[in-house]
Design a protein that fits this description.
Helix content is 29%, strand content 25%. By secondary structure, the protein is an alpha+beta fold. A hairpin with a 5-residue loop joins strand 3 and strand 4.
Length: 258
Protein backbone atom coordinates (compact mmCIF):
# COMPACT_ATOMS: atom_id res chain seq x y z
CA UNK A 1 0.00 0.00 0.00
CA UNK A 2 1.08 3.57 -0.57
CA UNK A 3 1.08 6.42 1.89
CA UNK A 4 -2.14 7.60 3.41
CA UNK A 5 -3.11 10.65 1.41
CA UNK A 6 -6.53 12.19 0.72
CA UNK A 7 -8.82 13.20 3.55
CA UNK A 8 -11.87 10.97 3.84
CA UNK A 9 -15.24 12.61 3.35
CA UNK A 10 -17.19 13.24 6.56
CA UNK A 11 -20.79 14.25 6.16
CA UNK A 12 -24.41 13.26 6.00
CA UNK A 13 -23.82 10.24 3.79
CA UNK A 14 -21.08 8.97 6.14
CA UNK A 15 -19.82 6.67 3.42
CA UNK A 16 -17.15 8.67 1.66
CA UNK A 17 -19.57 9.01 -1.26
CA UNK A 18 -18.83 11.93 -3.57
CA UNK A 19 -21.35 12.36 -6.42
CA UNK A 20 -18.87 14.16 -8.67
CA UNK A 21 -16.09 11.56 -8.31
CA UNK A 22 -14.58 10.93 -11.77
CA UNK A 23 -13.23 7.42 -11.19
CA UNK A 24 -16.44 5.37 -11.08
CA UNK A 25 -19.54 4.82 -13.13
CA UNK A 26 -22.93 3.14 -12.89
CA UNK A 27 -24.43 0.97 -15.60
CA UNK A 28 -28.17 0.36 -15.40
CA UNK A 29 -30.23 -2.20 -17.31
CA UNK A 30 -33.82 -2.75 -16.33
CA UNK A 31 -34.04 -3.30 -12.58
CA UNK A 32 -30.29 -3.89 -12.15
CA UNK A 33 -27.55 -1.35 -11.46
CA UNK A 34 -23.81 -2.07 -11.35
CA UNK A 35 -21.20 0.27 -9.85
CA UNK A 36 -17.54 -0.05 -10.84
CA UNK A 37 -14.37 1.93 -11.51
CA UNK A 38 -13.96 3.60 -14.85
CA UNK A 39 -11.42 1.97 -17.13
CA UNK A 40 -12.08 -1.65 -16.14
CA UNK A 41 -10.49 -3.89 -18.81
CA UNK A 42 -13.74 -5.82 -19.31
CA UNK A 43 -17.36 -4.73 -18.85
CA UNK A 44 -18.84 -5.70 -15.48
CA UNK A 45 -22.05 -7.65 -16.04
CA UNK A 46 -24.88 -8.54 -13.65
CA UNK A 47 -24.36 -12.28 -14.19
CA UNK A 48 -21.03 -12.07 -12.34
CA UNK A 49 -22.92 -11.49 -9.09
CA UNK A 50 -24.69 -14.86 -9.27
CA UNK A 51 -23.11 -17.94 -7.71
CA UNK A 52 -24.37 -20.05 -10.58
CA UNK A 53 -22.32 -18.14 -13.16
CA UNK A 54 -19.04 -19.13 -11.47
CA UNK A 55 -20.18 -22.63 -10.55
CA UNK A 56 -21.13 -23.50 -14.12
CA UNK A 57 -17.67 -22.44 -15.30
CA UNK A 58 -15.86 -24.27 -12.50
CA UNK A 59 -14.28 -21.00 -11.32
CA UNK A 60 -15.12 -21.22 -7.60
CA UNK A 61 -11.89 -21.64 -5.63
CA UNK A 62 -13.13 -21.37 -2.06
CA UNK A 63 -15.80 -20.22 0.35
CA UNK A 64 -15.92 -18.45 3.69
CA UNK A 65 -18.99 -19.68 5.60
CA UNK A 66 -21.28 -17.71 7.91
CA UNK A 67 -24.23 -15.36 7.56
CA UNK A 68 -22.20 -13.08 5.31
CA UNK A 69 -20.91 -16.04 3.30
CA UNK A 70 -18.19 -15.13 0.81
CA UNK A 71 -17.54 -17.00 -2.42
CA UNK A 72 -13.99 -16.84 -3.81
CA UNK A 73 -13.91 -16.96 -7.60
CA UNK A 74 -11.19 -16.88 -10.24
CA UNK A 75 -11.27 -14.06 -12.78
CA UNK A 76 -8.25 -14.18 -15.09
CA UNK A 77 -5.15 -13.73 -12.93
CA UNK A 78 -7.16 -12.40 -9.99
CA UNK A 79 -9.21 -14.01 -7.24
CA UNK A 80 -12.34 -12.13 -6.27
CA UNK A 81 -14.51 -12.28 -3.16
CA UNK A 82 -18.25 -12.25 -3.93
CA UNK A 83 -20.61 -11.51 -1.04
CA UNK A 84 -24.41 -11.44 -1.10
CA UNK A 85 -26.07 -9.16 1.45
CA UNK A 86 -28.13 -11.18 3.92
CA UNK A 87 -30.24 -10.25 6.89
CA UNK A 88 -29.44 -11.23 10.45
CA UNK A 89 -31.34 -11.31 13.70
CA UNK A 90 -35.12 -11.33 14.00
CA UNK A 91 -35.65 -9.60 10.63
CA UNK A 92 -34.18 -12.66 8.86
CA UNK A 93 -37.32 -14.59 9.84
CA UNK A 94 -39.33 -12.28 7.58
CA UNK A 95 -36.87 -11.86 4.71
CA UNK A 96 -33.45 -13.38 4.18
CA UNK A 97 -31.98 -10.86 1.77
CA UNK A 98 -34.41 -8.07 0.91
CA UNK A 99 -34.04 -4.46 2.06
CA UNK A 100 -36.31 -1.43 1.84
CA UNK A 101 -35.64 0.74 -1.22
CA UNK A 102 -34.76 4.35 -0.26
CA UNK A 103 -32.69 5.24 -3.32
CA UNK A 104 -29.77 3.68 -5.18
CA UNK A 105 -27.05 5.72 -3.50
CA UNK A 106 -28.31 4.61 -0.09
CA UNK A 107 -28.13 0.87 -0.75
CA UNK A 108 -25.58 -1.02 1.32
CA UNK A 109 -23.55 -2.47 -1.59
CA UNK A 110 -23.04 0.95 -3.15
CA UNK A 111 -22.23 2.63 0.16
CA UNK A 112 -19.72 -0.07 1.06
CA UNK A 113 -18.12 0.10 -2.40
CA UNK A 114 -17.69 3.89 -2.16
CA UNK A 115 -16.24 3.61 1.33
CA UNK A 116 -13.78 0.87 0.30
CA UNK A 117 -12.72 2.93 -2.70
CA UNK A 118 -11.90 5.87 -0.44
CA UNK A 119 -10.05 3.74 2.11
CA UNK A 120 -8.06 1.97 -0.60
CA UNK A 121 -7.22 5.28 -2.26
CA UNK A 122 -5.95 6.54 1.10
CA UNK A 123 -3.58 3.59 1.42
CA UNK A 124 -5.41 1.86 4.25
CA UNK A 125 -5.15 -1.97 4.30
CA UNK A 126 -8.52 -2.99 2.85
CA UNK A 127 -9.53 -5.05 -0.19
CA UNK A 128 -9.71 -3.23 -3.50
CA UNK A 129 -13.39 -2.94 -4.50
CA UNK A 130 -14.25 -4.32 -7.94
CA UNK A 131 -17.98 -3.77 -8.34
CA UNK A 132 -21.30 -3.56 -6.53
CA UNK A 133 -24.69 -4.73 -7.79
CA UNK A 134 -28.25 -3.89 -6.79
CA UNK A 135 -31.45 -5.39 -8.17
CA UNK A 136 -34.64 -3.52 -7.35
CA UNK A 137 -38.03 -5.18 -7.10
CA UNK A 138 -40.79 -2.74 -6.23
CA UNK A 139 -40.14 -1.32 -2.78
CA UNK A 140 -37.23 -3.65 -1.99
CA UNK A 141 -33.78 -4.53 -3.28
CA UNK A 142 -31.20 -7.32 -3.14
CA UNK A 143 -27.50 -6.86 -3.75
CA UNK A 144 -23.90 -8.05 -3.83
CA UNK A 145 -20.38 -6.70 -3.75
CA UNK A 146 -17.19 -8.01 -5.36
CA UNK A 147 -13.75 -7.17 -4.00
CA UNK A 148 -10.28 -8.43 -4.78
CA UNK A 149 -9.27 -11.21 -2.41
CA UNK A 150 -6.27 -10.35 -0.25
CA UNK A 151 -3.86 -13.18 -1.01
CA UNK A 152 -2.27 -15.51 1.54
CA UNK A 153 -4.16 -14.27 4.58
CA UNK A 154 -6.08 -15.90 7.41
CA UNK A 155 -8.61 -14.40 9.78
CA UNK A 156 -7.48 -13.46 13.26
CA UNK A 157 -10.04 -15.97 14.54
CA UNK A 158 -8.48 -18.85 12.60
CA UNK A 159 -4.96 -17.88 13.66
CA UNK A 160 -6.09 -17.85 17.29
CA UNK A 161 -7.63 -21.31 17.10
CA UNK A 162 -4.61 -22.69 15.25
CA UNK A 163 -2.23 -22.04 18.10
CA UNK A 164 -2.17 -18.46 19.23
CA UNK A 165 -0.51 -15.18 18.28
CA UNK A 166 2.72 -13.67 19.52
CA UNK A 167 3.01 -10.28 21.21
CA UNK A 168 4.21 -8.51 18.07
CA UNK A 169 1.15 -9.61 16.12
CA UNK A 170 -1.23 -8.33 18.80
CA UNK A 171 0.56 -5.00 18.74
CA UNK A 172 0.31 -4.92 14.93
CA UNK A 173 -3.44 -5.44 15.16
CA UNK A 174 -3.74 -2.57 17.63
CA UNK A 175 -1.57 -0.26 15.53
CA UNK A 176 -3.64 -1.01 12.42
CA UNK A 177 -6.90 -0.29 14.21
CA UNK A 178 -5.45 3.03 15.34
CA UNK A 179 -4.68 3.95 11.71
CA UNK A 180 -8.35 3.49 10.84
CA UNK A 181 -9.58 5.34 13.91
CA UNK A 182 -7.26 8.26 13.27
CA UNK A 183 -8.86 8.57 9.82
CA UNK A 184 -12.33 8.52 11.39
CA UNK A 185 -13.23 5.06 10.03
CA UNK A 186 -15.91 3.24 12.02
CA UNK A 187 -16.06 -0.50 11.20
CA UNK A 188 -19.60 -1.46 12.15
CA UNK A 189 -18.78 -5.12 12.82
CA UNK A 190 -15.24 -5.21 14.13
CA UNK A 191 -14.58 -8.80 15.17
CA UNK A 192 -11.85 -11.42 14.85
CA UNK A 193 -13.35 -12.79 11.62
CA UNK A 194 -13.05 -9.43 9.83
CA UNK A 195 -9.37 -8.93 10.68
CA UNK A 196 -6.92 -10.71 8.37
CA UNK A 197 -3.21 -11.41 8.85
CA UNK A 198 -0.65 -12.54 6.29
CA UNK A 199 2.48 -14.60 6.95
CA UNK A 200 4.44 -11.46 7.82
CA UNK A 201 1.69 -10.44 10.26
CA UNK A 202 0.57 -7.50 8.16
CA UNK A 203 -3.00 -6.68 9.19
CA UNK A 204 -6.02 -6.00 6.96
CA UNK A 205 -9.67 -5.21 7.67
CA UNK A 206 -12.54 -6.56 5.54
CA UNK A 207 -16.36 -6.42 5.40
CA UNK A 208 -17.24 -2.75 5.74
CA UNK A 209 -21.00 -3.20 5.40
CA UNK A 210 -22.61 -0.32 7.35
CA UNK A 211 -19.18 1.22 7.91
CA UNK A 212 -18.87 4.99 8.07
CA UNK A 213 -16.52 7.93 8.42
CA UNK A 214 -17.24 9.76 11.67
CA UNK A 215 -16.02 12.39 14.09
CA UNK A 216 -15.98 12.06 17.86
CA UNK A 217 -14.61 9.28 20.05
CA UNK A 218 -17.46 7.23 21.56
CA UNK A 219 -17.69 4.97 18.51
CA UNK A 220 -13.98 4.15 18.81
CA UNK A 221 -14.52 2.74 22.29
CA UNK A 222 -17.51 0.75 21.02
CA UNK A 223 -15.34 -0.66 18.21
CA UNK A 224 -12.70 -1.86 20.63
CA UNK A 225 -15.22 -3.25 23.11
CA UNK A 226 -16.95 -5.19 20.34
CA UNK A 227 -13.63 -6.68 19.25
CA UNK A 228 -12.72 -7.58 22.83
CA UNK A 229 -16.01 -9.47 23.25
CA UNK A 230 -15.35 -11.29 19.97
CA UNK A 231 -11.88 -12.38 21.09
CA UNK A 232 -13.11 -13.70 24.42
CA UNK A 233 -15.99 -15.51 22.72
CA UNK A 234 -13.58 -17.32 20.41
CA UNK A 235 -11.37 -18.23 23.36
CA UNK A 236 -14.41 -19.53 25.26
CA UNK A 237 -16.24 -21.42 22.52
CA UNK A 238 -13.68 -22.10 19.81
CA UNK A 239 -10.62 -22.99 21.79
CA UNK A 240 -8.71 -19.91 20.68
CA UNK A 241 -5.73 -18.70 22.68
CA UNK A 242 -6.55 -15.29 24.19
CA UNK A 243 -5.92 -13.81 27.64
CA UNK A 244 -5.94 -10.36 29.20
CA UNK A 245 -2.19 -9.79 28.56
CA UNK A 246 -2.91 -10.26 24.84
CA UNK A 247 -5.52 -7.51 24.98
CA UNK A 248 -3.07 -5.26 26.79
CA UNK A 249 -0.52 -5.83 24.01
CA UNK A 250 -3.15 -4.89 21.43
CA UNK A 251 -3.86 -1.68 23.34
CA UNK A 252 -0.13 -1.03 23.57
CA UNK A 253 0.09 -1.21 19.78
CA UNK A 254 -2.99 1.01 19.49
CA UNK A 255 -1.39 3.62 21.72
CA UNK A 256 2.05 3.50 20.15
CA UNK A 257 0.58 4.28 16.72
CA UNK A 258 -0.57 7.73 17.89
Amino acid sequence: MGGEGPTLVKGRRKSGYSPDAPDWQIEQAGSSAVLFRRGEPAPIVAEWFRDRYWRERNLIVGKEPGRGAVLFVRRGEQTWALRHYRRGGAVARLTVDRYLWTGLERTRPFREWWLLRDLHNCGLPVPNPVAAHVNRSGLTWRGEIITERIADTRSLASVMTAGGIDAGAWEAVGATLRRFHDRGVDHADLNAHNILLDAGMQVFLVDFDRGAVRTGADWKRRNLNRLRRSLYKIARTGGGAFEEPDWNRLLQGYGSAA
